[in-house]
Amino acid sequence: MNAETLRELLRRQPFEPFxxxxxxxxxxxxxxxxxxxxxxxxxxVGYPETERIAILSLLHVAAIEMLRQAA
Length: 71
What we know:
By secondary structure, the protein is mainly β. It has one helix at 3-11; strands at 18-22, 27-30, 36-39, 42-47, 52-57, 61-66.
């Protein structure tokens, strides 16, 4: 996965939520641009409701899937 691709998704106006799917099957949902950032070859995704963070190697990102917004 290219870091610039993720940066572009985080900067989109209006922002569209998406999932980061990892090669091990884990799925990380980014519902707001302020809960994720790109640092070098890693993505950091925060989960404010649990105060948990996930640090993801971009080498292990298998796919990005855009989430449909509720109408």
